[in-house]
Amino acid sequence: MSISAFARRCGLTASALRFYDDYGLLSPADVDATTGYRRYSSAQADRAVAIRRLREVGLPLPDVVKALAADAAESSRLLDEHLSAANDDLRRRRRAATDFTTELYDDVPCPLGSFRGPVLAAAIEQVLTATIHHLAAPALAGVRLERSADALILIATDRYRLASRSLAAGDVEGVPWSGTVDGDQLREAMSELRRASRVEVESTARDVRWRHDGGPTRRCRILDGDFPDYRLMLEALPAPCTRVTVSRHELWRLLEHHAGDRLVLDIGSTGIELSTPEGRVLLPGRMTGDPLRIAFALTTLHPAIIAGIGPDVMIEARGPDRPVTIRSADDGDLTTVAMPVVLDEQELDHA
């Protein structure tokens, strides 16, 4: 078929096909000796489409040659390496753009607190699990920071879960401030913060800045859009009817070995009883209120327990179909609000 017909079939342009021919990547099946017209066969369509798709992700031509000649595993490795490098480059460009735009303004930074790097990094990580990317609500991809008189509070929510973590602000005097910080940029800052012995946190109207150990200042932009009124959400919760406190590490261990995607907790006077591959297991604890059978999706409960702090976890339930508060504490506190799942009678009988 003619070069124009082949180009249409494969989603390419005729000029691109000429370029790939000159490079030696895709030669035509036949070239007219008199006119020089290129003609292609249907058998070449798969290779042409593969070239187009590899170029769509920005793979350089030498790597396209390697990917086409390699097996599936090697091709995947080449793509992973390319995308990783592209993501690193995008992060560098985003940081440079953030630094440049913030330097255009004469914003006076407001101190938010001074924190140990590993503690701050862990606190951010603990609430990041509740973020989500949502086109209609960009603020849900961020972490809300609020400076109170004596603490820095970090909040995130995907509207199904809410995580709140407080950190004592130390001796740093600050004024009340709040803003929603880009969650992706926070993730990028994790390794730096975790290695820093001390991190000074400051805010402006456009970004939050992290300074540590004489290193360069890291900036994370403030997201546009309204953050959900989490205080209203918490105040609307009724008082718990059941409260149980157990070992967080033991509950974590049991969740790690749970076979299904849902689990049922039987909360009673001696603690929490749940099913494991070895049978029913009692997790000793202190309970007040009414006995309760409640179910969770493992993907909801597991992150909340992993992200906890300190050796213990407190679960406050309001019934089998109402929001549950999961709390833990050491020198600060972490609160997660999560929804249980409602199981039908047959599922409950087999729990």
Automatic annotation (TrEMBL):
GO biological process: DNA replication
Pfam families, alphabetized: DNA_pol3_beta_2, MerR_1
Keyword vocabulary terms for this entry: DNA-binding
Designated name of the protein: MerR family transcriptional regulator
Keyword Membrane part of the UniProt annotation: no
Domain of life: Bacteria
MF (Gene Ontology): 3'-5' exonuclease activity; DNA binding; DNA-binding transcription factor activity; DNA-directed DNA polymerase activity
Domain HTH merR-type: residue ranges: 1-70
GO CC terms, sorted: DNA polymerase III complex
SUPFAM superfamilies in the record: DNA clamp, Putative DNA-binding domain
